[in-house]
Design goal:
By secondary structure, the chain is α+β, with helices and mostly antiparallel strands. It contains 14 helices and 13 strands. Helix 2 runs antiparallel to helix 3 and helix 7 runs parallel beside helix 12. The longest helix has 29 residues.
Amino acid sequence: MDVVQQILDFNAGREPERLQIKYDKMQADAFVFLRGSCHLFYQQLACKGVFKSAPPVWSCGDLHFENFGSYKGDNRLAYFDMNDFDEAILAPASWDLVRMLTSLQVGAHSLGLHADEAQQLCEGFLHSYVSTLSQGKAYWVETQTARGLVGDLLDGLRNRQRPELLDAYAPVTGKKRTFKGGRKKTLPASREQRAQVNEQMAAFAATQAEPHFYKVLDVARRVAGTGSLGVERYAVLVQGKGLPDGNYLLDLKQALPSALQAVVPCAQPAWPSQAARIVELQRRVQAVSMAFLQPVVRGRTSYVLRGLQPTEDRVSLDRARQSLADIQKVMATMGQIVAWGQLRSGGRQGSATADELIAFAQGRKWQTKLLEAAADCSKQVEHDYQRYAQAYADGAFRVWK
C-alpha cells in the first residue's frame, strides 16, 4: 500500500488552505498523524481481517483519547462523553476499541508516558469497558457523578460564559460583533461562501419556531480538528437573543461519507443524507445530545449544525503534572463511556442487543488478541508516519503557499 498516495487520494478536492493546515499538523508527531489518517488505519485493519466476528455496534468510528470531552446538552446540563461522530457507522465492537488502544500507545510520548505506563492504561481502559458492558446498563457522566480529573474539568466549566466565547471569536466593533481575520480559529469567508451560508441558514430558520434567532450576522471559515480540515466548515454568528452578548455561535460542517464505509463488513441503513447519519448516531450513542444539533441539507450536500459552546473542553493529560493513578481513572471513565454508548444504542437497525454485548464481554481470548493487535497497529502507524514525514519534507504535501 502506497501510504502517500492513499492520503493524497483521500483528501483530493478539499479546500487547499485548510488542507495545508491539516498536512502541516500531521507531520508534528505520530499521534496527530493517526488523528488525521483514520481512513488509512481502517484500510490496513481490514486488510488484516481483525475481529470481523465481534458483535456489530454503533461506533464512533474515529475513537481516540482526544475524542472525549465536555459539552452542554440540549437540557442545559454539562456532560462528558464522546464528541466526534463524523465517521460513525455500524461496525464490529472491537474496531473502536483497537483504535482507542492504538491511540494510547502512539500518543504515549505526547502524554509523557513510558511504554509500560501506556500498556497499563490500555489494560485499564479495556478492563473498564468489559466490566461495564457485562453489567448491561447504560449510565452517563455529568457534573454530579464525575470524579477525578473529569470532575475537575466539569467543575471548572461553571464560570465560563457565552460572552467570553463570543469575544474570542467575534469581538465587538462599535455596537456589533464581527469575525476578525488572522485568528487561529477562523479564516475569512468569501462573498460566495457567505451567500451560501446565509441561504442555508434562512431555509433552516424557516422550519424553526423562532426563525429570527437564526438570523445570520457574520460568517467565517472555521479551523478546528485534524481529520476533517479542508472540508467545508463555518463558524456562524447569529442574532440569538440580541446584540451583542445575546448572540450565539454555531458550527456548520459539511458531512462526508464515513471513512470506514469502504471496508466495514456490516450492512448499513440507507440514510437520507450523510448529516442525518451523523446526527442520528450521535443522538443514539450520547446520553444527551449537544445543543442545536441538526442536519441541514442543501441539494445533494448536507451539513451538521450544532452550537459552539464555552463548555467544550478536553481533559488535559500530562504525566509530568499528574499521577499515573489519576490518568488511569480518566481511562476507566472513557472505557465506561464507550460501553454505555454501545448499550444505549443496542438493538437498533442491526446493532447487537444488550444480551449479545454481555456475552461478548464475557469472552477472554479476544481481549488478549485485541491488546496484541493494538501493539501491531501502533508499530504500523509509526512506520506510516515516518513515510509521511519524509514525503512531507520532500514537498509531496505542499498544496498552499
